[in-house]
Each structure stands twice: as C-alpha cells, then as structure tokens.
Design goal:
4 helices, binds manganese (II) ion
C-alpha cells in the first residue's frame, strides 16, 4: 500500500510479543468469556447453572490491547475501575464449528491477561439490558503478557493469581473454569469463524476489585508466566 491509498496512515496492527521469538503475534479479534468461574459468578450476583446455560461472550476492539508492563491512565467516566485476572488463549489455526475433540489443533499458545472493567458502568448496563461496551471496551483495558507457544496443548489446570501492591486479591485454579478450554473453542466456533490471531480471554475467578491511581498489579498463572500493570493518573 502506498501513501496514495489511504487518506492518512492506517493504525499499526495490534500485536503481542511471543516468548522465544523475535516475531510478534498479530492480533485479529479479542473475545471474552463472561462468568466462567462459579465463585466469581456468585460474587456478581449471577450464579451459573451449567446444566441449563450456555457460555456467553463479549468482544473488545483490538485497539484496547495493552502490553504487560505498561502504565495506563485511570479511565474517564468511572469511579469503580476493576481488575479481572484471566488466562488468555491464542488461536493459531482457522476453524468453524470445531468438534470438541479437535479443538486442541487450533491452539497456538497462552498468555496472562487482565480484563480491566468500568464496573459501575458494566453493572448499570447489565441491569438496564443495555450493551456492555462502555463498561468493557475501555481504552487500554485488554492487557496481555507475551504469548507462550504451546501448540496443541489443552491447559486443564494451573494456579491463577493476582495481587495489588503485593496483597493477594485473586487466587484460584484454571481447573475451576465452568466451560473448559475445549468447550470454549467448540462453542465460540459455532458463532464465529475463528482465525489465527484471535485471542480468547477465558474469564476471571473470584476476588475482583477496584484499583486507584498508583496501584501496581501483578498476575501469575502457573505454567504460563506473569503480567504487570501500573495504574497511572486520570486520563487527560
Ligand atoms: Mn472478564
């Protein structure tokens, strides 16, 4: 593309680092699973009965992607900005209506993620039956660590934890996912033609809570790695 093609320079492709590689993973879409740990669903006042429910999803713009180690502004129009520590799955192979037993073929690797949320706006929207975008599709809110390549590996367990200023806030295990990795890929692929570079944030365990400017967040998932985020001053 020459500079004659577009009116102005297009935004760069959102991307994340890959452990052990000089090449970066180009990100296509960001999917998020809602209420995927029982104890978190309960703390949100919306317990899940898997026998009669299906998973649900929301999306965020890839422009919200933010690297681990960043300092991000405290966003506008909220008084309750919250952390959600999550396991992130990177899709490495296209697929549609993927049978559960084949889902592993579509896994490129995993990362640590933070699904930062304007909780006050999310809950107001939820309770009025409005879209979640202002609560969830927040600038700088999709924080992601480097991707760890694990082609074909279905993660079934591993401690997941988040601390704020050294104090543990969330501590659970990936084995407690209501809909596991295979079930998420199989179900989401009924709705979307999954493509390489799609990232799936798999949901947060209990213990979510607010941050303030100056807070330092440190997340960890056994077998994957770490994630860091500093909350900066209010957005200017
Ligand atoms: Mn989440």
């Amino acid at each position: 593309m020459t500079q004659d093609t577009y009116l102005w320079t297009p935004a760069p492709t959102p991307c994340v680092a890959v452990r052990g590689s000089a090449q970066r993973l180009p990100v296509r879409r960001l999917f998020f699973v809602g209420r995927n740990y029982h104890a978190h669903a309960a703390e949100m006042g919306k317990p899940v009965d898997k026998s009669v429910e299906r998973p649900f999803y929301f999306t965020k713009s890839p422009l919200t992607l933010t690297a681990s180690g960043s300092t991000t502004p405290y966003p506008s129009e909220t008084k309750n900005y919250q952390f959600e520590m999550e396991l992130v799955l990177a899709v490495g192979k296209a697929g549609f209506r993927i049978p559960a037993e084949q889902t592993h073929e579509h896994i490129y690797g995993y990362a640590c993620g933070l699904d930062m949320t304007r909780r006050d706006l999310q809950l107001a929207a939820r309770d009025k039956g409005r879209p979640w975008d202002l609560g969830k599709d927040v600038e700088h809110s999709s924080v992601c660590s480097e991707i760890v390549p694990m082609p074909g590996k279905v993660m079934e367990s591993g401690a997941i934890a988040l601390s704020v200023n050294g104090q543990v806030k969330q501590h659970s295990d990936v084995s407690k996912l209501i809909w596991n990795i295979r079930e998420i890929i199989a179900d989401l692929s009924l709705f979307y033609h999954l493509q390489p570079g799609d990232l799936i944030y798999t949901g947060t365990p209990e213990g979510v809570g607010p941050v303030v400017s100056g807070d330092q967040l440190h997340g960890h998932i056994d077998g994957v790695g770490e994630i860091l985020l500093t909350i900066g001053p209010a957005a200017a």
